[in-house]
Amino acid sequence: MNSLDKTDHSVTSQSRDDEIARLTELVQSLNSTLKTQDIKIQALIQEVAYLRRMRYGVKNEAMSAEQRSLFEDDVVQDIAAVEAELPATTAAPRARSGRQTLPEHLERVVVRHEPDSCTCSACQSDLVKIGEDVSEQLDIEPARFFVIRHIRPQYACRKCETITAAPVAPAVIDGSLAAPGLLTWVATSKYLDHLPLYRLEQIAARQQVNLSRSTMSEWIGRMGFALQPLADRLSELLRQRQVLHADETPVKQLDPGAGKTKRAYLWSYRSNDLDEGPPIVVFDYQCSRSGQHARDFLHGWQGSLMVDDYGGYKKMFAADAQFAVTELGCWAHARRKFFDLQVSGAHPQAAEALRRIAQLYAVEAEAREMDHAARGEHRLLNSLPILVDMHDWLIRLRIATADGSGLARAIDYSLHRWPSLIRYAQTGNLPIDNNPVENAIRPIALGKKNWLFAGSERTGKRAAAIQSLFATAKLNGIEPSAWLKDTLEKLPVWTMRRIDELLPIKPTA
């Protein structure tokens, strides 16, 4: 082999070695990339599994209902984001339960999608329609401002020299540029959607509409005055019921003199779902938690009142009270004492108490559709034996439990309130717990985080009146916005004798 051949062989061998080294490095790089991707995919899959377990697993009652709701929203968002990030080949197929049926009452806007050509692309023959595929999507048109122009022609009589024109229709706010629809939008946005007025001002500004906060505040003040008789009438009708729920929640009220806020309270009163008649809820805004406010609201009322163990109600239940009110104890509150023990760690006695209380609620579920007489018999046969046995068990357990312990406090809460806790089981029309009024007040408790505080006592009372009407409408399955718009249109010419016809309740048959 000559020197030239040796040189060519050396070059070829070197090139092959370089290529092998390059390919080896490439394979190692690809393997490293695949390993990294596998690790990421596994991490994402585990994250999806964890999020699904958190979403569908047992709910932790240590979180409030609002906190759980917000948490679940975030979990759903995270799951969707992680699944979108996963490669299509590794993402598990999503279980679909069928497309949601959209409400029939909504307007249908038809969009037809015709092919570019009605001839066959293969043979150029005319296509024949054999059917059509129909799918629906839900859409929305955001708040749309428009102007209603009222034109009233004027007619003159030349002979009598008089002028005739249609009269100006009376309005809730005389001379205002706001139509009932706009007033309704402002009120529902503020009191149902809990949007501060400055945000409504910004929404309007995006459509080049000037709605100042001061103007909207004035509208709400005048609307509140016009709607107050309806709220007062709701209170009258509520006090005609024989069984009521009551609860209270703190709110902040501006204290201009001190330059800060002070604590006020929104007292809530609700009808009993087991009674006949439409459901009613009334909110009463007061500047303190004094039990005198409840006594003033229920002055002269006689019946059974479902409350928690707050001492402000106790004077109404005293033997020498000026009017007879019977106390009903809330099993949801009694249960909560044992639940708090159970979630802090495995607690066999608390678990047993929860099991016994669950039996009481199972009896209630079975009697949900019964009338008063049948439910009363059902409770006597099923609930009372459970309660008698539970009472004996709690007494024995208390003797063996150290004073001051968490279990002792939970037992004492139930034993001290035992007569009021078992009262429901002796009838067919009394509720087992105070959840209905707590559910009614919950949206306001969540909304107050947005509006932060009430500007004054008058503001708080006005908000309570409007909230009473809105909350009662929702309880009766009435769309609050539609109800308010219709009411604002009718109210200026309505007579007080027919005020019940304007209330957001469904008339009894």
Automatic annotation (TrEMBL):
NCBIfam families: transpos_IS66
Transmembrane parts of this sequence: none
Xref: PANTHER family: BLL1576 PROTEIN
Start and end residues of each Transposase IS66 zinc-finger binding domain: 118-161
Domain Transposase TnpC homeodomain: 44-111
One Pfam entry name: LZ_Tnp_IS66
Domain Transposase IS66 central stretches: 176-461
Name of the protein in question: Transposase
Annotated ranges, domain Transposase IS66 C-terminal: 468-504
